[in-house]
Amino acid sequence: MSTSSISSFQAAKKPLISSRTMDLLVHLFFLLVSATGVIILGLILVFLVMEGLPIFDKISVTDFLFGSAWYPTYDPPDYGIFPMIVGSASVVLVSTLIAVPLGVGTAFYLAEIASPRMRGILKPVIELIEGLPTVVIGFVGMVVIAPLLQNVFNLDTGLNVFNAGILLALMAVPTIASIAEDAIYSVPKSMKDGALALGATHWETICGVVFPASITGIATAVVLGIARVIGETMVVLMVAGGAAMIPHSLFDPVRPMPANIAAEMGNAAFRSDHYHALFAIGLVLFVTTFLFNLLASYFANKYRRVGEAI
Amino acid sequence: MLGSENRNRRRRNIQKVAFGILWATATLNLLALVGFLLFIAVNGISAINWEFLSEMPRNAMTEGGILPTILGTLYLSLGAILVAFPIGVGTAIYLNEFARDGFWVRMIRQGVVNLAGVPSVVYGLFGLAFFVIIMKLGVSIIAGSLTLAAFILPLVIGSAEEALRAVPRNMRLASLALGATRWQTIYRVVLPPALPSMLTGLILGISRAAGETAPIMFTAAVFSTAKLPTSIFDEVMAMPYHIYVLATSGTNIEETRHLQYGTALLLLLIVVVLNLFAILLRNRLQKRYKSST
């Protein structure tokens, strides 16, 4: 090792370019490579706008967002996506109601109570759930949960808001649990010791000290979990039922925005109005998840500042 | 006196119940995963045999094997990681080794965070508009791989950065103090010990790309091909897309159930084994790193 590096330093005595220039070139190269992510993000936005905006020559933004009929192949066609927005909102709401208690509970158990052995089992379990292929989750929803719901509640179809909500919760729990756990775990031990020394039980310490101290971190986790669920495609495509109408009960079928794009893009002729309308839905989806991610960043920064103050 | 003892007992009982509930929420994850895996395994195992793995589909997809979908998924995920890994590692090197905190670095980081949050179906739209149409790649392995590469890039960057951060600062300083340039330091001192844990990002990236459906729906995957792909400009069949189509829009959904279970089991096996391998590798490396400092 030492001899080879010495000889290579000697060999580099009269290089074509000085090592200073070389370093600058290398620096520039990595700078360019690192721009790829931002460039892709920019390109995604550019293409969504470029391919989505033309639909607004045919229909106003308000009619698009709040129109209640989606019949892209009729003559004249209707491009109202309000039922899909409500569809997305309903599955997201149901899954959030299920996933937040489960995810946050799991996070507290892992960070505060679990033995090292239990942690050693549960952390990989959560990572594996996060990595499950979404199409297989959707498949299980079709062959297991749908018939179950149909029989138990005596429904016309088991493919509905509730089914999709359960499965999306399964996907949101790992995100919420792992990020919330980090936040809970990083509450300074001295704060907890203070409460315990004053005679509080471990549970009282968790409620009165750890929870308030980690609340912004938990909020970040929840918002990111919701963001993931909003954009999830395969599950809602396979188990939400596919009906583009406003649901009146937990067991009505819906057609969330990602499902509609995935289901119809294959049939939309290149640069037809239908094609542009689907890209416009993609733009709505992109902006929504972007805002949720921004909100998560906001909470995360706030949380960091609290941490620094302590 | 008696009252305070009663109160303490009540407080302890409340704690017991509360911890019981937390334990239940955490254990539910384990039950869900085990139940999920067992269900697919029990129903899928009978479909998997040599014919299933090695032959073309027959009789309008209702019989025969799924070889083209296996190869398609293999090509797509390997193509994706081939593109995403170098770019991801390069980005991590820049962020961790060259950059000073400032506007540009914050922009790159925020960009990567937001990229990770883009819905998978939006990647599909982007891939369709950019790779398939503008770059004239058509519905093809290359278009699908590039779309998947963009999709897994944030994940690869994240794990590569973690690997670089685990290399002690003193090693860099020692190398620089000996007169090595920054690039020599990165290349000879920082990268060698960081590479094994970058491998976890590589494996996770392959697994994530293999299991995704939405990004390849409009960019690479088709329901059926007459022959195996011979070039990167061919369209392909892929396992996730195959499961989706067979389970939702075939005319013989019930008739192909065994193929759906078989394909789901195989895909699940590939993804879970890769993930498990990456997790074990990372835990091993973390332990080694902890014991060496």
From TrEMBL, chain A:
Lineage: Bacteria, Pseudomonadati, Pseudomonadota, Gammaproteobacteria, Pseudomonadales
Species of provenance: Halopseudomonas formosensis
Domain ABC transmembrane type-1: 85-296
Annotated TM spans: 24-50, 81-110, 131-149, 161-185, 206-227, 233-254, 275-300
UniProt cross-references to SUPFAM superfamilies, sorted A to Z: MetI-like (SSF161098)
Pfam families in alphabetical order: BPD_transp_1
InterPro entries documented for this protein: MetI-like, MetI-like_sf, Phosphate_PstC, Phosphate_Transport_Permease
Function: Part of the binding-protein-dependent transport system for phosphate; probably responsible for the translocation of the substrate across the membrane.
PANTHER family per the UniProt record, alphabetical: PHOSPHATE TRANSPORT SYSTEM PERMEASE PROTEIN PST (PTHR30425), PHOSPHATE TRANSPORT SYSTEM PERMEASE PROTEIN PSTC (PTHR30425:SF1)
UniProt GO MF annotations: phosphate transmembrane transporter activity
Protein name: Phosphate transport system permease protein
Keyword annotations of the record: Cell inner membrane, Cell membrane, Membrane, Phosphate transport, Transmembrane, Transmembrane helix, Transport
Bilayer disposition of the protein: Multi-pass membrane protein
GO terms, biological process: phosphate ion transport
Localization terms from the record: Cell inner membrane; Cell membrane
Family: Belongs to the binding-protein-dependent transport system permease family. CysTW subfamily.
GO CC terms of this entry: plasma membrane
TrEMBL record, chain B:
GO terms under cellular component: plasma membrane
Entry GO MF terms: phosphate transmembrane transporter activity
SUPFAM superfamilies, A to Z: MetI-like
The keyword Phosphoprotein is assigned to this record: no
Matching Pfam families: BPD_transp_1
UniProt main location, coarse: membrane
InterPro entries: MetI-like, MetI-like_sf, Phosphate_PstA
GO biological process: phosphate ion transmembrane transport
Cellular localisation: Cell inner membrane; Cell membrane
Alphabetical UniProt keywords: Cell membrane, Membrane, Transmembrane, Transmembrane helix, Transport
Residues that span the membrane, as ranges: 21-50, 70-95, 115-135, 141-164, 185-207, 259-281
Topological relation to the membrane, as annotated: Multi-pass membrane protein
PANTHER family, alphabetized: PHOSPHATE TRANSPORT SYSTEM PERMEASE PROTEIN PSTA-RELATED
Family affiliation: Belongs to the binding-protein-dependent transport system permease family. CysTW subfamily.
Protein name: Phosphate transport system permease protein PstA
Species this chain originates from: Halopseudomonas formosensis
